[in-house]
Structures are given as structure tokens and as C-alpha cells.
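Batch job 17 of 40 flagged for manual review because the log was empty.
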Amino acid sequence: MLLGVNPQSADQRGAEAERLSDTFTDLACDFATLVCQTEDAAAEPLCQAGYPDFLDIARSRMCEVQEHGSALGGNVRGAASISGETDSDSAEDFAGVRAEIAARIEGSTYAYTTVGDAAQRAGYAETPETP
């Protein structure tokens, strides 16, 4: 399985997530306001009695959601940056490897097939005419 990251695309997605994170800024406060408005609209005192407890329990969770949502964009952009650095470091470490592998294949007894050769044998590509 191959895994990879396109650092530029990830950075763009991180920027989008940062813009989206602005919507999380007042999430906990908006949630508390909504719960209080709903409590006021509840007609029965017995029904109203449960709202403060619910708000106390849920408020901390809404604060966590707000924090995670606000941090998401920065986390994605940070990961994109680190992935780009890793790619750059790896490129330097493996520079010239392709030429070395090609030379070993050319000088070996292993038969290897290019995609074009395999396609021709399978009948998916025209066989070039030999002069």
C-alpha cells in the first residue's frame, strides 16, 4: 500500500479548514444561549428543571468541540508542512537511486517488462512494426 501527501493540496485544505474554524469561535456561547432560550420556551416547570443540568454537562463538551474545530486548520497546515519537509529530505537521501536501479536491471539476468510491452502482449496496444 502506498501512502502519500501532496503538501500543496494539504496546505490549501488546511487554509480552508482555518476559514471554517471561524465558525467555531462562539460555539459554546451560542449553544448556551440556545439551551437557555429553549428552557424559557418550555411550558412545564418540571420540564424546565432539567435544562440547567443539561447545560452544565454539555457546556464542557461544546468547549472541547470549539477548541478542536478552531485548531483543525492549523493542525492540517502543520502536517502539510512536515510532509513537505519529509519529502524534501527523502528526495535528497534517494537522489540518484533511480539511475542505479536502472543500471542494475540493465546488467542483470532478470527480465522486466515495461507497461507498453505488457500492453502489446495482452493485445491492448499495437505492436510496432520492425524495420
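Reviewer: the log was empty due to a logging misconfiguration, but the result itself is present. The helical segments are 7-21, 27-41, 45-48, 50-93, 97-106, 115-121. Unflagging and moving on to job 18.
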